[in-house]
Design brief:
Oligomer: single chain
Organism: Amycolatopsis japonica
Number of helices: 2
Number of domains: 1
Pfam families: T7SS_ESX_EspC
Shape: rod-shaped
Number of strands: 0
Largest sheet: none
Protein name: ESX-1 secretion-associated protein
Distance between the termini: 17 Å
GO biological process, one term: protein secretion
Radius of gyration: 23 Å
InterPro entries: EspC (IPR022536)
Structural class: mainly alpha
Length: 102
C-alpha cells in the first residue's frame, strides 16, 4: 500500500511505461521522418506561390521538431515510470517482510 491506502500495482506501472514509450513512437516515427526528409523547393510551389515556400518550409520543420520533442518527453516519462515500478515493488516486498515478523 502506498500513501493513504492507494494500491500501486508495479506490473501496471510497467505496462503504462511501455505504452508511453512505444505507442507515440509507432504512431509518429514514420510521418516525422517523412517530413524531415521531404525534398521541396520554391519551384515545388509553382510560380504563383513560390514566395510562400520559405515560411511554409520553416513551419513544417518546426512542427517536426515539436513532434520529436514530444516523442523524447514521452519516452523519458515512460522510462521514469518504469523505474518507479522497481521502487514500489521494493517497498511492497519490504512491507510484506516486516509484516511477517509480527
Amino acid at each position: 500500500m502506498a500513501g493513504k491506502g492507494h494500491k500501486v500495482d508495479p506490473a501496471q506501472l510497467n505496462e503504462a511505461a511501455k505504452v508511453l514509450q512505444d505507442l507515440p513512437k509507432q504512431a509518429c516515427e514514420g510521418p516525422i521522418g517523412a517530413v524531415e526528409q521531404i525534398n521541396l523547393s520554391a519551384a515545388s510551389f509553382g510560380p504563383a506561390h513560390g514566395d510562400c515556400f520559405n515560411g511554409y518550409s520553416a513551419s513544417i520543420q518546426r512542427l517536426a521538431k515539436c513532434a520529436r520533442s514530444y516523442l523524447a518527453a514521452s519516452d523519458e516519462f515512460g522510462r521514469k515510470l518504469a523505474a518507479s515500478k522497481d521502487l514500489y515493488q521494493s517497498n511492497e516486498d519490504s512491507n510484506a517482510a516486516e509484516m511477517r515478523k509480527h
